[in-house]
Amino acid sequence: MDVNKCLGVADNLSSIVPKVKDFGRVKTIMDALERNMEMVSAKKADISIQLELEEQRPGKKRKREVDLWIQRAGSMEDRVHKLGRKVKETHFLLRFMLASQVISLWTELNILHEKGRFDHGLTQVVKPARGYELRPGELVGQASQTKSNEIWDRLMKEEVPGMGVWGQEGAGKTFLAKHIHDRIVRDCPRFDGACLVNVSQEGTIGTIQTDIAKYLELDLTAVSAVYWGARLREALQGKRLLIILDDVGRPYSLEEVGITLARDGCKLIVTSRSREVCKQMNCHELVHVPHWSEEERWLGYEAVDDYAWER
């Protein structure tokens, strides 16, 4: 409700103050203020429910301005309720002494309501410190667990900067790579995090660079594409990151991409259908993933769904 309409006076807010000394109108404005506070409180409740739903999604975090607005709205509720009790309990001849407080609170509430629009959303995307978990599903069967442990054990060797995981299409290379990725992300002191890039058979150096840059939250567009490799090398320097290049169809120059491997720095896993591709990409350790038959899977060796064994 508009104060000026309530009082039947001019639009200038300053003209209200003298008139509210009319004892009865102080309570009238206070009633309108409390109704407006009810609307703001309802908005606060709606925002809180929406935040709860959005923050359940990975990487979503409420904006600080939203959190601050909710806190101020809660504080405003207390102030309005306390002032409302004073106006109701005070003798009507003395209510004019509360007029300035009522007008001041009205103004603050209007400003608070305007700042609660949040046209650009309530949350922002925040990457976890070590990266996102991919959660490909559980390892089922002794064979898959054994193969995962084999990859992990070789990866943890200091003298192994890069390793290849190769096998036919559908053998489960991507599934195993995602499990290694998530073990790194959850908690592995050796690495700062893990980045998986789906290269695909038609991938290019540019697409690989772009995906790694997104993980690093690095803007490559500020320079010409010819400098992207140099920018990535600079950004990766000093980091202990596991980079997984998945489903690589042909060999790529790591130097051209901008990846430098080191014992106490970044390491690499390449998954490919070709053993030779892995070898040509500086993969000193090679792990073969056999293609288990449907009969063997049903017997419990690799009882996972078709989606999990997409590579």
TrEMBL record:
Pfam families: NB-ARC
Keywords recorded for this protein, A-Z: Plant defense
Xref: InterPro entries: NB-ARC, P-loop_NTPase, Plant_NBS-LRR
Ranges of residues in domain NB-ARC: 145-298
Protein name listed in UniProt: NB-ARC domain-containing protein
